[in-house]
Design goal:
23% strand, L-arginine/glycine Amidinotransferase, Chain A, alpha/beta, globular, 364 residues
């Protein structure tokens, strides 16, 4: 594996859309007890369900600590490749490499800087050095040459690509003080285009209410095809999500993509009833630095947009809400060729993210 110091775009590399063919997927086995309630047992069962569905249509590699290897091996199907790797938590989207490819189908990884969603400014845990080293180790495992972009703080959940020159991100996250405060919006946009082989960044102002990642784009908006997106939405103007989604819709309705197309925007409802932490769930989480990581009644950043597009299926979070069915139906219209698999996701959401946040596609 070579570490590269050149610029992906200049080398002819770009980030494909997630809906394009994958050669595999990376996940990380959940373990830390301040993220995952009750010793992470329920989260592990949810991760296993996801791994089973994904591994039906793409090779799944699960990273796991030495302590959890035997448990994970016993719980996961034999088709899942299990690899011991030290990480700080289980957010593969954010700590694994972003894979880019060139016109000849050569694939390389990008190793971004990772500081746990904001470092000492407003990051979510400390230390994060094991997570920061994960991308390079994964590239080594896959024998994939790696671009060294560690000077730029970025998580995979904060970007989407349509594979045709257009990127999506949020201002709330990428312009946050805990990431690259020395860079302007223009400089950040240019760096994204240089690294991801793109021409244009669509900057959405906000993400999902109370999203502790500073509002990652992968929870509010996603490409379902070039020129087509889904946006998390509520019609309830008294809901704190309304002005955030409205501001994003205003941008999307005015936007053209890198190819000059107007976007087709489908609205994906958020759950009808806000998903909030219970007392019992809070008591199931270990304290962090002597402080609770969650409080009873806290609204979690529940969104159906946090789905994962596998080769043969789209895995969609489910919250036991009347809108679960609506989300499955709308996504079924977006992906008529794929199985639409609803996955009960509350136990993942308690950790602070959802199905997209715990998966990272390896592109073909
Ligand atoms: O990408 C994500 N949504 C990860 C959130 C991390 C939360 C840590 N508790």
């Amino acid at each position: 594996m070579k570490i590269l110091h050149t610029i992906p775009k200049e080398d002819g590399f770009y980030m494909p859309g997630e809906f394009e063919p994958h050669s595999g997927c990376i996940m990380i086995w959940p373990e830390r007890t301040d993220s995952w309630q009750n010793g992470a047992y329920a989260a592990r069962r949810a991760f296993v369900k996801i791994a089973r569905v994904i591994s039906r249509s793409e090779k799944l590699t699960m990273l796991v600590s030495h302590k959890q290897y035997e448990t994970a091996r016993a719980m996961l199907p034999p088709t899942v490749r299990l690899v011991e790797c030290t990480t700080d938590d289980a957010w593969a989207r954010d700590v694994a490499p972003t894979f880019v490819r060139n016109g000849e189908g050569l694939v390389r990884g990008i190793d971004w800087g990772f500081n746990a969603w904001g470092g000492l400014h407003d990051g979510l845990y400390f230390p994060w050095d094991n997570d920061n080293h994960a991308a390079r180790k994964i590239c080594d495992l896959l024998d994939t040459d790696t671009y060294d972009c560690r000077d730029f703080i970025l998580e995979g959940g904060s970007i989407h690509s349509d594979g045709q020159g257009t990127l999506l991100t949020t201002e709330a996250c990428l312009l946050s003080k805990g990431r690259n405060p020395h860079m302007s919006r223009e400089e950040i946009g240019e760096r994204l285009c240089q690294c991801l082989g793109a021409e244009k960044v669509l900057w959405l102002p906000r993400g999902i209410y109370n999203d502790e990642t500073n509002e990652h784009v992968d929870n509010i908006c996603a490409f379902t095809a070039p020129g087509e997106v889904v946006l998390a939405w509520t019609d309830d103007q008294s809901d704190p999500q309304y002005p955030l989604s409205r501001a994003c819709l205003d941008v999307l309705e005015q936007a053209t993509d890198a190819r000059g197309r107007r976007l087709k925007v489908r609205l994906l409802p958020i759950p009808q009833t806000p998903v909030c932490m219970t007392q019992a769930e809070c008591e199931g989480l270990d304290l962090w630095d002597g402080e609770p990581t969650r409080t009873p009644g806290e609204r979690l950043a529940a969104s159906y947009v946090n789905f994962y597009i596998a080769n043969g299926a789209v895995l969609v979070p489910q919250f036991g809400d009347p809108m679960d069915e609506t989300a499955l139906r709308i996504l079924g219209e977006c992906f008529p060729e794929r199985e639409i698999a609803g996955i009960p996701a509350r136990d993942i959401l308690i950790g602070g993210g959802n199905i997209h946040c715990i998966t990272q596609q390896i592109i073909r």
